[in-house]
């Protein structure tokens, strides 16, 4: 399969007039590449016991939805406010609660499809319409379950030829340390953001404003630097004072022991700490400054535990381009028997639409076709 050029991947409004900003046309080479990746991922997920589902692209709009502020909304003929699907976890959770209320748990599900966001986001490469494949492991909450997802994430990326580094976080650890330091309300919220940005300068400004002690300020700075290998867990253990913080470190040690392979830890990660209830993780591939995969542990409505991850197919296509096999040769078949013979040989065959050899020759040159077939016999492209 041919690598996709940058010009084919990124189509601006100037090169593709008539489409909204943040959307794009997908041309045949990239489409084939993306579908091959989707099929490989689905096969890997199935081999691990994750069964496929589909959920509607239209949902009921709700202020409680985690992406409500970013969702495209519309009104149906009955006056009901609907939203285009903006993330999969909520939809899969709704399906799990309504279709599998009694399990059996753990429930392993996989999905693939398109998402839409009203606002342009740099994290998604300025796209408002994009594709994801992913899995959800629902109904169990344990280090074994978290380790399974890390193993599966690594296996899925390797199966499409992408070598990536897994980076593990635990947003609740930062919150627990801030709680142990006696921080609450607005001060705690703002420090979450400063620590997540790893902004020591902002930490100092907030510490001075709120009159924090030197010891607490040093602890906050240490949080911004909790990044690296297994030694990070040792540093976090020394920092953990309360029950929640100590439990987070113990859980991460258990997960790491079960994964066995190399992991990076970012215990200063604090984004969406109010959404994630445990381990979070991302996978970074060389040459990309944004993750190709992300996920974590959460609680569904009603308290049902869940965890999963999603892979952005547009970003994965960039990371996997050099690892995908070349496309099969395309030939021009002058009759149905020739087309079948070519396809039986593993080639792609287009049928001739005319007996005009000059027209067929001109088309073959433009299309890059170098061989014709008729019956069981091969013909060279006529000049």
Automatic annotation (TrEMBL):
It holds the Pfam family tRNA-synt_His. Gene3D superfamilies: Bira Bifunctional Protein, Domain 2. Residues 22-316 form the Class II Histidinyl-tRNA synthetase (HisRS)-like catalytic core domain. SUPFAM superfamilies: Class II aaRS and biotin synthetases. Residues 1-26 are annotated as: Disordered. The keyword Amino-acid biosynthesis applies. GO terms for molecular function: glycosyltransferase activity. It is found in: Cytoplasm. The keyword Mitochondrion does not apply. It comes from the Bacteria. Keywords: Amino-acid biosynthesis, Cytoplasm, Glycosyltransferase, Histidine biosynthesis, Transferase. Pathway: Amino-acid biosynthesis; L-histidine biosynthesis; L-histidine from 5-phospho-alpha-D-ribose 1-diphosphate: step 1/9. Heteromultimer composed of HisG and HisZ subunits. Required for the first step of histidine biosynthesis. May allow the feedback regulation of ATP phosphoribosyltransferase activity by histidine. Belongs to the class-II aminoacyl-tRNA synthetase family. HisZ subfamily. This function is generally fulfilled by the C-terminal part of HisG, which is missing in some bacteria such as this one. This is ATP phosphoribosyltransferase regulatory subunit. It comes from Deinococcus metalli. The gene is hisZ.
């Amino acid at each position: 399969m041919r690598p996709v050029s940058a010009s084919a991947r990124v189509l601006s409004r100037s090169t593709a007039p008539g489409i909204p900003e943040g959307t794009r046309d997908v041309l045949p080479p990239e489409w084939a590449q993306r579908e091959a990746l989707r099929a490989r991922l689905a096969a890997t997920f199935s081999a691990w016991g994750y069964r496929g589902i589909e959920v509607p692209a239209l949902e009921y709009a709700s202020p409680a939805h985690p992406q409500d502020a970013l969702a495209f909304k519309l009104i149906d003929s009955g006056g009901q406010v609907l939203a285009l699907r903006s993330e999969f976890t909520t939809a899969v959770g709704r399906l799990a609660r309504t279709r599998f209320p009694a399990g059996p748990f753990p429930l392993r599900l996989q999905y693939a499809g398109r998402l839409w966001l009203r606002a342009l986001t740099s994290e998604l490469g300025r796209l408002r319409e994009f594709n994801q494949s992913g899995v959800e492991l629902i109904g169990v909450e344990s280090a074994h379950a978290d380790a399974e997802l890390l193993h599966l994430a690594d296996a899925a990326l390797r199966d499409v030829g992408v070598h990536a580094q897994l980076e593990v976080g635990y947003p609740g650890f930062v919150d627990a340390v801030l709680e142990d330091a006696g921080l609450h309300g607005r001060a705690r919220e703002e420090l979450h953001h400063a620590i997540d940005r790893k902004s020591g300068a902002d930490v100092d400004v907030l510490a001075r404003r709120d009159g924090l002690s030197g010891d607490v300020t040093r602890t906050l700075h240490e949080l911004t630097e909790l990044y690296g290998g297994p030694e990070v867990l040792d540093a976090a253990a020394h920092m953990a004072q309360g029950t929640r913080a100590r439990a987070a470190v113990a859980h991460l040690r258990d997960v790491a022991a079960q994964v066995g392979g190399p992991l990076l830890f970012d215990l200063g990660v604090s984004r969406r700490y109010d959404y994630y209830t445990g381990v979070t993780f991302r996978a970074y591939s060389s040459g990309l400054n944004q993750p190709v995969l992300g996920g974590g542990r959460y609680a569904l409505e009603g308290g049902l535990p869940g965890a999963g991850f999603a892979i952005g197919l547009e970003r994965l296509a960039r990371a996997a381009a050099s690892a995908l096999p070349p496309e099969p040769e395309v030939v021009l078949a002058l009759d149905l028997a020739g087309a079948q013979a070519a396809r039986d040989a593993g080639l792609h065959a287009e049928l001739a639409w005319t007996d005009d050899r000059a027209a067929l020759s001109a088309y073959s040159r433009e299309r890059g076709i170098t061989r014709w077939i008729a019956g069981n016999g091969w013909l060279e492209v006529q000049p």
